[in-house]
Amino acid sequence: MAATAGVRKDQYRVTVTVDGADTGVWDKSSGGGIDSDAKPYRPGGMGEVKTLGGQKSVDDMTLSRLYDHDLYVMLIEKVGAAAVVVTTQPLDPDGVAFVAPTVARGVLKKVQGPEHDGDSTDPAMLEIEVTVATVTAS
């Protein structure tokens, strides 16, 4: 049985669907943190501080992959409206899934084509930003 701790950053398969269309595996992802607006409450008489909790929110996610012009064109048409599902699957050292994936659902907020630099031979990247509404993990 594989361990559930001690995974490297490269041991994930991140896939994205946009309006149900599979866009394949994405190379990098960031964001998607889950936060709340919980604030401490200080009662009178120097009472002990209490936290009443707060509503949850999820940070936007940014994903990038090697530039694909056809995908870029398709995504441009869907900015601001398309339903997006980001599935993050942890992998063991042999590339085999060993726990259930984390699934984020939201809307395509932004599409960014590659940066240009006449002095660079770095790969051209396609980037998307997703406004995340829900995250589920098990």
Describe the secondary structure blueprint for this structure.
Layout: E1 12-18, E2 21-26, E3 28-31, E4 34-36, E5 40-41, E6 50-51, E7 56-58, E8 61-66, H1 69-76, E9 83-90, E10 102-112, E11 125-136
Elements, N to C (H/E): EEEEEEEEHEEE
CATH topology category name: Pnp Oxidase, Chain A
Q: How widely separated are the two ends?
A: 17 Å
What CATH first level would be assigned?
Mainly Beta
The total domain count is 1
- Structural category is mainly beta
Task: Identify the notable features of this structure and list them briefly.
globular; 1 helix; Pnp Oxidase, Chain A; 11 strands; single chain; 138 residues; 7-stranded antiparallel sheet; two-stranded antiparallel sheet; 46% strand; mainly beta
Structure description:
The protein is mostly beta strands and 138 residues long. The protein has 1 helix and 11 strands; from the N terminus they run ββββββββαβββ. The protein has a single domain (12-33, 58-136), classed as Pnp Oxidase, Chain A (Roll). It has one helix spanning 69-76; strands spanning 12-18, 21-26, 28-31, 34-36, 40-41, 50-51, 56-58, 61-66, 83-90, 102-112, 125-136. The chain has a 7-stranded antiparallel beta sheet with strand order 2-1-9-10-11-8-3. It has a two-stranded antiparallel ribbon with strand order 4-7. The chain has a two-stranded antiparallel sheet with strand order 5-6. A hairpin with a 2-residue loop joins β1 and β2 (21-26). The chain starts with 11 loop residues before the first strand and ends with a strand.
